[in-house]
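Posting this for the archive.
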Amino acid sequence: MNLRWIQRFDGNSIITSYDIEYKNKSDTWDHMYTTRNISPTNNQANIVELHPACVYSIRMYSYNKIGRSLPSKELTISTEEAPPDGPPMDVILTPMTSQSIRVTWRAPKKELQNGVIRGYQIGYRENGPGSNGQYSIVEMKATGDSEVYTLDLLKKFAQYGVVVQAFNRAGTGPSSTEINATTLEDVPSEPPQNVRAISVTSDEAVITWAEPPRLTLHGVLKGYRVVFWSLFPDGEWGEMQNITTTREQVELRGLEKFTNYSVQVLAYTQAGDGVRSNVLYIQTREDRKGGGGGGAPGSKMEEIGRWGCSLRTIVPLYLINAGAALAVRPTVSTVWADFGHQMGLNSPSSHRHSYFDKEELHLSSPPPFYKKMCLASCILSESALFFYRRPCDVQGEGEDEGRFNDQGASLPGPPAGIKAVPSSPSSVVVSWLPPLKPNGVIRKYTIYCSSPGSGQPAPSEYEANPEMLFYRITHLSRGKQYHIWSAAVTTAGRGNISSKVTVEPAGKVPAKILSFGGTVTTPWMKEVRLPCSSVGEPAPTIKWTKDSEDSAIPVTADSQRQILSNGTLVLRSVKAEDSGYYTCTATNTLGFDTIIVNLVVQVPPDQPRLTVSTTSTSSITLAWIPGDNGGSSIRGFVLQYSVDNTEEWRDVFISSTERSFRLDNLRCGTWYKVKLAAKNSVGSGRISEIIEAKTHGREPVFNKDQPLLTHINSTHAGLNLQGWTSGGCPITDMMLDFRPKGTWAWQSLKANSTTQLFLSELREATWYELKMKACNSAGCGNQSSQFATTDYDGSTIPPIKSARGEGDDVKKLFSIGSPVILVTLGVALLFIIRKKRKEKRLKRLRDAKSLAEMLISKNNRSIDTPVKGPPQGPRLHIDIPRVQLLIEDKEGIKQIGTKSIKSAHSSRNRYSSQWTLSRPTQSQSTASARTLTSDWRTMGSHGITATESDSYSASLSQDT
């Protein structure tokens, strides 16, 4: 502090020294500071080591040889602020989400603030591989002794170092010690890579993949989840299953034979499941016969097939030594077959299937080596026998779908249904349905026919193509009953047989339907055929009906429906209203038969109900309730979103099990449009209502409490960029435009700093206009101001009294140019109007001239030409553009000399036209109208030809 003084009365004695005393204004003089023995030759002194931003009271004493004077009048003065000398205290970092960290701290110590703390700068940087080590700076206004700020838009599961600085008007203080914190874990944002699926066997597949990119894990990888489900032939999905593993490979076992599967793989962290991979499709293999079954020499595969034992592996059992003891594991059951007594086992054989829980089974004598035996869940010490599911059926008539051949291949299941009806005295027709589980490609069907008591050792066998689901068996005996059954055949062998049906050929056959009822599922807008094949003698008639609420409505043929000659009902372009129960009835004189078909038409799913759950600066969380699935399970959802003012929609595919989704990496402070649709096997359904949601944040705003300029001299001006508040979204661009007032050209400058910017090479003693614009993702904020540089000696200049604003030049040009433009437009408009009028007048004159020439020509052709027919006045109708004339004679004849003329002369104006023909009167001037004279010949009442003369004039009508 520089202190100056003037000595007044010296007491008539030379001043020998001065003393300066000063203290804090709030203290008493008992706590003063003193500067003593200042030379009397000085009239100023510098007081140092004062505290910044403090108010002091100062007084002085003067000394002469007599003594000390009274104190001077107290002087109160404030020191200027200085940058803080201490850092903020108690800085604490708390991770809030995977992309945000909350920072809390307290203000620096009071004695180190050196002024009023205006705000804080928070610097943060990523401390990890690939980071540049530079701090990103954000600022906030001081609100009190304790402060809180949340850093957003950080990287997921990344470590950050944070420092905090306080600042006042004088500048920024020291930084706090850097403290590190790691953002929370999040789900992986990318799926596993290189997902592959390999079908190993008919019921096993191997799925392999590679780890997602490290930077996309966003956490500690806990493992992988493989999601898979079967795809049925009708398009429906099976139950969704999943397997969790820590390896990058998994074996899917126990799959359905020869079945399509969809597979997806995802990685998961502590935060949850990540993004699924694209759907991978795989089909399990068809079971085929293989080599080597461990059978004894001479074993017959055909015999094994006829036994029909439900073994995973059938091993012929033969004992080398008589009376060998076979040790069986305890608690394991052994199945005793009907032929067990042939083996000589010490067990009762009175029942068809017997079960034992023995540790040992003794054989009294070895059986022939070619005998086959089915054992269950036991491991013999001398020979290995494998798992067996159910008792053996010697006759092979079981309906178990788990049969295997001698190499462990799964055989087809039984046909889903079978019918047999008589078609003549010596034939029957058999129909069947394919197996529900074919376990392979069906190569053919085998139909068996046997007659009880006929003495045949084996049933008759017939083969049918796999495309044919019916077969006619001929050469049967009338009145004799037959048992009929069927089985499907694949490369693995003959499958399980169907149930047996009994039929008797007959001469007169009541109506029977060969087709099967049941449920038929189809997508909409497809053609559906509902078969209803029938037999009977006499031939039956077919009738289709559809059930309604109260009665059955007959189905009639139209453009959408047709009943073929074989009884098949054809429905074209089916819709949801075509769903329902259809009944086919076959009738003849001996009876009738019916089947009921439930038609289910699948349609796209209904629109879901979409809502917004939460929003943040970079994400929008959505939730929804699905609508009706349209008769087909929902395959997934398609979420579409775009920025509000664009139509560039982005698609996000979401699993069918999800009911909420978070859109990440959105722009801060931006409106988004979102819509959602569900998908099923038919296609995408109706789109939900478009909803709008906005992420948090707004455009930057300049704080009115902050000064716009921090320093001005004759050639430089310092701008305070810290006065801009980000609005919650980081400021990305800051542009400045400035120019001397009264000039046209703006000078542009882009700010790279976020704290302060200097404008250099300014003119001395000049007023400037300044425009500042700060932008972030939410928008741009503007701030305008004016400032003046100082004179060369540092003095300020007065304001300009009639300073023009920014838009004054434009307004002046507009005020000068507007009248000129208006006059020019007016002159052009008058010229156009006059030109149009002139063209109209010329057109009217041309029309009048043409009309006159036409009438004169007509008059010349009519002279001395008698008119035949009944007497009537001549009528002339002329149609020309914008002119319509109707001329006809008036009744009444007036004798003029030796000629008769019309006595009545009146003006005819039938239509409102621009031209009118009228008889001229004496008062009419010949100059204003052109007279047309025409002579007309008419036949009088007594056969006397009379000549009439009429005169007309053409002139402008009054309505023109």
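The chain is about 5% helix and 40% strand. The chain has a mean pLDDT of 77.
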